[in-house]
User: Fold these one by one.
Assistant:
Number 1:
Amino acid sequence: MTQATGPVPTLLSLLGLGLLWTVAAAGLDDPDVLPGPMAVWQVIVTEAARGVLWEHLLATLGRVVAAFTLAMGLGSILGVLLGQSHLLDRWLFPWVSVFLNLPALVVIVLCYLWIGLNEVAAIAAVAINKTAMVAVTLREGVRSLDHRLSEMAQVQRMSWPQRMRHVLFPQLWPFVATAMRNGLAVIWKIVLVVEFLGRSNGVGFQIHLYFQLFDTVTVLAYSLSFVAVMLVIEYAFLQPWEIRARAWQARTN
């Protein structure tokens, strides 16, 4: 069963990373190439005080949530259908494989060309990239279902909602948790690329702006700020949820 990393090891590990960063920055002695943690922290505080940091963080987070919700919804439905129907799997899985291996940059550029430089294109590009990955994960989850539990539910004359709640969903939860974690980890990185190429706000837009100005410290400030947001989501929500999901699977094995 997956176990969450405790707060003390997590903090010590991050402090160790910060110490390594400090030593590397001091040894290089070139803030234009690798500024130290304190220099980056000062920029984060300044941008947050101005309100600019929060504006761009929220813009990126909104796109991540929208694309993640869309990819999880469509991918889960498609994955369940492919896992339950051999006919659909035979004819549609090659399509899924194509989208699974299609480079994210190609999808982003095509969406911008076809739809325009707008929010619909940005969110669609990210969701299309990750829907196939979610579908493959859920497809394998459906194929691994324990049919003995389904037969027992039929013997007990459980209603369809009861079967979904007590038989199907608990078995699929670990796969859903895996799809959520992997999907979120990749989606926010693709969102930054989408913003880098064609949006007027967001963390990716700010990285593009300060990249043009060769401002390494501000690029790091915005990048690490959003990394911090994703770490909070990971440790506060995804890890506890995944452990509860896998606990059921452990009890049934």
Number 2:
Amino acid sequence: MTEPTVRESMMTATYEALCACGYTDLTAQAIADRTDKSKSRLFYHYDSLEDLIVDFIDYLIERFDERTEETADLPPLERLERFVDWFLYGPDDTERVSFHTALLELRAQAPYNERYREQLRRTDARLRETLESILEDGQASGDFRDHDASRTASLLIAAFDGARVRQLTLERDAYLEDVRDGVTTMIIAGILADGVEFPTGGEPTDEDDGECDG
């Protein structure tokens, strides 16, 4: 098994290469160039580039789980705000735009690659479970009205995904802002308990690097 420090280095290099090259032009050499290892040493740990990418998606799941754990003690309303921030980032966040462009290319391979598809299903399940938990906790705390947390989570994630795809493929940055406004005023406002307001928030912090969404 790859040592944790070695794997972390490789995953960081894969992330940087994806941001710089996109999935289409991603090569083992581009990843190796961002580590202290040669291409041949890279494949000492992975049998193929596909194996490395599959592990990279698994790494994203692990990072998302870590982030979820870090915010688990926050009030449901604040956790929901942060969840929205992770996805509907500002259009000037060039690093996150680059990463999500590459990730969009990776997701486009899923219909033809069963291993990618299975890993991406896992990321989707994690997202849904996390958001459902936030909504259920908010109902228990009295911040949210009683509602179907599963259906609301599905609707929110679909809105987030749609906004990002259109922003990335059509270069229409306004989609992120418009969808965030719509999500806040038309969906989230509808599940808030009387007298509860959704935080206006702001631009994501540096800690919210976008590495852990699928």
Number 3:
Amino acid sequence: MADTHVTNTKEDANIGFIILISLVATLGGFLFGFDSGVINGTLKGLETTFASQTATSSFAFSSMLLGSAVGAAFAGTMSDKFGRRNMMIVAAVFFAISAYGSGAVSSAFPFIAYRIIGGLAVGAASVMAPAYISEIAPARMRGALTSIQQVAIVVGLTAAFFSNYYLAEKTGGALGEINGIQTWRWMFWVELLPAILFFVLLFFIPKSPRYLMVKEDETGALKALTRLFGTDAAASKIIDIRASLANDHKPKLSDLLSNGKLKPIVWVGIGLAAFQQLVGINVIFYFGSVVWEAAGYTESDALKQNVIMGVLSLVAVGITLALIDKVGRKPFLVIGSIGMAITLAIVAYAFSTGEVIDLASRQIDLDPKMGTLALYSAMAYVFFFNMTWGPVMWVLLGEMFPNQIRGAGLAVAGFAQWIANFIVSMTFLPLLETIGLAGAFGIYAGFAFISIFFVAKAVKETRGMELEDMVG
């Protein structure tokens, strides 16, 4: 249903408030990014402290992703029962527990446990923030507002990279000390500050009006919509939401099925979520220091490259914010798939020209020119990802499902996203020691190429559509 019955003046009067609460919601994205990126600089400290081998290290570093898969799987359906905001409050508590515990442990098993707790928070935040923002934002700017989630993720990653780099520079590396405590532990504890801030601010934002309507609290929904859009627009939107829910029942997972099979829209969501990870983006974000040290850079230089890539990512997402509601979602994905396929193939080629020195130490002898080519191509790849698949996948997942299955659809897609993330992260170090950097990046380039055809065939444009008009 078009948005023509709502005047721009009415909505503009509340845009500042909508942006403000969207920023609060995306603090979960910031913590998602920080928690994902902080592991990058702690790698050497953790391996030394825990005396880990490759397989153990891979699981310790990837264990958060299993928690994320579980958190995403349950957050959607739990939020249908308890509310989007309440689930984000629980996630904030888990972020704080994980941040403190990860830096306080002295062996691998409790570290894995705390990382899984953090993963539960990351998974919940990854699906709740887009769902919440899509349900409080006007259709004409929903894409830009939901894209703020990716901005927050990238800012969180960049903050983690910068924090790691700063602490390592001041103390001589992850194994240095601050007040007698190893630096890598402080890298985790920095996250406590934004986690506590997120927890406090969530109590000042309204509940999702569409969630309140599902819970048959029309008075509460009208009050929330009035704060967002004004009295006249709120009354009109209440009618639209009520009509969309009139023939529906309370959400449940079985709503995702049609004749005993997953609905096509759910498969599209799963495909989008999986491809976003199978292109290997988190190899750069989680193991960037390993990649660049293997290519011959020092620990300090490798951490510095991470900071640069974080800044590039912010520029890329800024382009998306400015254009996504004008250009649309699907064109961004096609451009991204093509750009990533090309740049990943160049990275793979550059690394293929090197010679392995020592598998155990993950060192290769690479011509400086090829190392530079690999670095710049990787930067271009990160730019393409964060301009396209990074934010646009979350925008689509937050708005493509009908009201009745939004929570459950996000849960299943989020679960697929984190399982794919876990597979890529868990296999990277073993791949590095078997087929090398060239082979690993060649695999990611192949998935980027396949994603071009997936987007062209399966993804439908949702720009400018009201959530009540989404069909599945």
